[in-house]
Design brief:
about 60 residues, mainly alpha, 3 helices, about 55% helix, globular
Length: about 60
Amino acid sequence: MSNYIILLGAPGAGKGTQAAMLTEALGVPHVASGDLFRSALQKKTPLGLEAKKYMDQGL
């Protein structure tokens, strides 16, 4: 069974900084949800097009 760590917080709260520290300390990958959504949007996938509605509103 795999374990996951999910970091939640407002923009600028330090999620990326903490994720980088965890990646180095634990040797685990860092997957940023924003990067996944931007990639899906660029590829015009159904998920990306749905996410665009929220991203355009700044959500």
